[in-house]
Sequence to fold (665 residues):
Amino acid sequence: MRYRLSHLDKVFDVNVHIEKEEYIVTVNEEEYRVKDFAAQCNHVFMKIQGKKFAMSFAQDGDKRYVSHDGEYYIIEIVRPAKSGVRAAEQEANSVASSMPGLLIKMPVRVGEEVSVGQTLAIVEAMKMQNELHAPCDGVVKEINFKEGDQVDAFQPIVELESSEK
Amino acid sequence: MFKKILIANRGEIAIRVAHACKELGIHTVGVYSTVDENSYHLRFMDDSYWIGDSTPQASYLNIDNIIAAAKQSGAQAIHPGYGFLAENSGFAKACEENGIVFIGPCSRALALVGDKIASRKTVQKVGVPIIPGMQIADKEISIFSKIARRVGYPVIVKASMGGGGKGMRIVHTEQELEASVQAGRREAKSAFGDETVYLEKYIERPRHIEFQVLRDNHGNVVHLFERECSIQRRHQKIIEETPSTAIDEKLRRDMGEAAKKVIEVAEYTNAGTVEFLLDDRLNFYFLEVNARVQVEHPITEMVTGVDLVRQQILIAADRRIDLKQTKIEQRGHAIEARVYAEDPENKFLPCPGRILFLNEPSGPGVRVDSGIYQGWNVPPHYDPILSKLVVWAEDRDSAITRMSNALKNYVILGIKTNLGYLKRVMNTRKFVEGDYHTHFIDENQSELKLSEKNLPEVLAASAILFAGDERAFRASAEVAPSEYRITPWQELGEWEICRH
Fold:
């Protein structure tokens, strides 16, 4: 099985196959031999390159939340459709909050010209305010929420028409 | 003694208060907002009342609704916890007017300690040192600049009603002064509704050391030693310990006596915390009184053996403190780590969401004051604190090791938390040496960075999990992945690989 897996902003090519008693996993060309793989609910145990390795995990669709030795990782399958050029272009012009929260301020109107870095929305969560800025110069094409609305993480709040061609 | 207490809070502190109530045979009344109807604290309540919509203003800050719930339930007293209405003199007054005991200081003492300029003046009268600076609020910028020159730059502009770093400005030169005062006023006005700011000398590498004090209605007062709270991010504490590595016996005695004087001159009753700054020449200065049970109160409980919340309830019921200053001792060492739903790799931004998996640590000397459960959706409306991990051990080194191990065994998956970051703090050289001050986080960033040392192994193991979910892969496997086989090596965190 071949996967593109991401952690934070990095993407890795990972391939898994089975040979006799072992899993052979390559991570960006580097080979790891895994055996004695055992799972117990949310914990897995194995030997990687002959050394004992344990981690806890939880599953959420294409994501695995992982804890190993007191550190935390979110490993996600990168699906080809998502990395398409068009999707990337669209995303670049829509502004979303990286945390869910309450939309407390929407200082712009549809049709308004904005410049890069201008505050388009302020989202508040857990007593902290997060300002969302325009990623480029442009015109506000759509506003999907109003002040006082609850927004989820990565839900487009404002869509811009970029003036950069 | 009270028969019923309403706990006007949520999360771990509501549960902490409920434990003390139950041990005293007191019925607990919980309150909740709409989004909290499935929250963990309600499981510890004998009765629960809905007090409003999910925003704090509509519910946990809604004085009318909370008083109404107290009356309807027949509660004789209200414990406010920390945050929300805990230090709101208007709330304390509303309780007094409705014949309900507010478990905390009286509204007059609360108003005095809430006003920083007034409390500076009051404590100075009894000879407790304060940071050199303004004695009265002033509008004139010329007065600010005169006093700044007298105490010497750098100086700090602070909001009189302030807290949490809001309205604060550090000023290094006279040229910056006027703009900083104005910016501080604007911020103070929007955060606290009062634009009064004042100026004092800026202490450059301070330690933040506070003393826990108890005073009853009969004038008996004791202190329960210090808590060192210098490890902070965004002006909020994340790790606290006691005893402090910075102070010796004599200084401890002097600061403890000063703390008691502050509480006495303010005619303050119940549990209070006197905060001091300690400069690098070991001069201490009064900062403020925190008129509530502190988030970090458990470390004092661990070393003194005194249940502070129980004491709060007994004092509110007009009992005399049954503790003698000479009999209160610090035994061993305690550390607290605050577990927050936040992303340390992204400016500590809050990260609410669903907890998919939870494993809490246990063992000798390990205490978890938790407000969460597996499957719960952490709402975005409130403070991101999830729980507090507290350890006690005979000495500081053992306490650090115990905390480090407990953190490795504390697993919260599904949302981002600061657990990994807290563990890194435990391993930082300056922390281990006990040589730190309030800029610790900024000055030790390289040691506190996420290590990707084990990332390839994590990716490899994750890939096997992903593959294991695919039927075609499982069919191709000559040896089925030996799922659900119980192995003798089960404990997480014991297994370290690739130690180069």
